[in-house]
Amino acid sequence: MTQRSIDFVQKRDFYRHRFAIPLPAIMRVSRLNDKVINQDKTTIVYVSNISAGGLSFSSELDIPIRKGDIRLQFILELAKQTFVVEGLLVRRTEYAGRNEIIYGVAFEIDSALERELVVAINQISIQNRI
Hints:
CATH class: Mainly Beta
Number of domains: 1
Low-confidence stretches: 1-10
Number of strands: 8
Distance between the termini: 34 Å
Mean pLDDT: 87
Radius of gyration: 14 Å
Order of helices and strands: EEEEEEEEH
Strand order of the largest sheet: 2-4-5-8-7-6
Shape: globular
Helix content: 10-25%
Number of helices: 1
């Protein structure tokens, strides 16, 4: 299996929960090249893992990556709570023979939302161990 990857961030300061079955989430582009995008155009993506610092998702969309250029918004449900989080697209990995691309996003969120995410991620991790 050949892999082509562009990595800008390898920092992992938080526990990362990996989903056995990818979690569907609603995604939209909220900023492109420092311009706010006020569109209601959304797409469903599949989150493979999440931490309070970011997430990884797969999609058939071909999103170009340039460090700091694309800010994405996600709406997802964790531990029966709906979260709206935003972050910068920092990684893109393509696998030969697959129609999906794996992306990494580094969240840009305040400390209150970060704490809420930590609690929710811990709850789903504990539930999955039972």
